Amino acid sequence: MTRRSAPPVTAAATRPGSHKETRPLRRDAEVNLGRILVAARDVFAEQGYDAPMEIIASRADVGVGTLYRRFPTKADLFTAVVESARQRNREIAEEVLAEVAPGEAVFEFVRRCISVPSVWRATTAAPPWGSKRGAGLKQIAPLIATIVDRSKAAGTLRPDVEVTDVVMVLKAVRSIADLCDTPSARPSLRFLELALDGLRPGHAAPTHPPLSIEQLARILSQG
Amino acid sequence: MTRRSAPPVTAAATRPGSHKETRPLRRDAEVNLGRILVAARDVFAEQGYDAPMEIIASRADVGVGTLYRRFPTKADLFTAVVESARQRNREIAEEVLAEVAPGEAVFEFVRRCISVPSVWRATTAAPPWGSKRGAGLKQIAPLIATIVDRSKAAGTLRPDVEVTDVVMVLKAVRSIADLCDTPSARPSLRFLELALDGLRPGHAAPTHPPLSIEQLARILSQG
DNA sequence: CCCAGACGGAACGTCTCGTTCCGGTTATGC
DNA sequence: GCATAACCGGAACGAGACGTTCCGTCTGGG
Known about the structure:
homodimer, DNA-binding, elongated, mainly alpha, 2 domains, Arc Repressor Mutant, subunit A, Tetracycline Repressor, domain 2
């Protein structure tokens, strides 16, 4: 613990003139920043917060020194990655809402969340220093709720499943995918089908009550 | 790396006269051995092979020295724990076969595997030094296959699910349970119900092929 | 009462990892 | 072209985590 509280160097890579005339990055530096973000996203998704900085650096074809020039601390890098993943996740929900037929909405939402490993992983990811509890989930929950409602109305989703159930399915499929999938084969797709079938109508109501959003948020933000 | 290859001190705790007149343990020592095994089972189940020996020791109310007097190496302790968990798992399968109606067999098997956290976890556990590939799974697979066949015959299980699908469900539910459950509440039971519903008849056949036992064994024994 | 055998837990050596530092390199404005 | 501010890579440092060892003390059971 030496520095802390240094400017997070937020990914101002969103093109020039971001806020206060911070001289734009040199071109090569900007390219590297992009690579770092991608590498960090993937590595954190694969190994969690414990992933060594050196792995991220080498994956980005960069020295560790370069990482620390952009992000004063590992925590800062992690935060940046998580925030961008959450945003991407919200976009996915909105796209589904806009593009997909109500009856297929939940199912397609889950499929899309799973198709990019890093997104859903990072969205619910929690760093050791237990940031604000469940911020990630609470931001997306309303969107998922809308998707769920539509599919229920369309009669393709069991009326007795809740948003939190969908999130649990997401977590479960993600864990199977992490376990089995390789770049060349994705056995988890079969499990995904089975799990989604469990959400379809035609089964006795579950005997155990659903988790509330708050409960689930608390769980996700600590474990 | 200094010793290695020392006698594993197999849990000869199976009462006196186990093999070659190894003087029986002093009573207090035997009690401690029991506590060590239980603690190690739980701790390894919770944290994986990376769990510090000191945690196991303190959970067993014992000094680390005592651990090393019984098991020359962390690896030896782990091996002993895993082997006993596998055996318990086989017993569960046999009990289900003997006690449960065919129609409920798979479902009850999954429920029982999940009800004791350490068992299924350890059964598919893999130490870093990648022991014999998938030995654990291959031992139980035939038993699960019998259970699956019975339930299919009874018409309560989709004819298109395979043994490997059941194992994946087991893994998935386990991961959710690890995430959510506490001594006082088990939200994963609801997810378990949903997941099992996905295995019931009345759905279109999955479009992706099942994993073979060999493939799954390979996956489990490395990740 | 004695002591082989058991016990606890401090100490040791190793290894991992976050972070720092600095000599060399390169984009960019003049 | 040139000067130079920004960059870059990656060795090195220090802290901490862990497996394992060691040794002084305690105790079950003959």
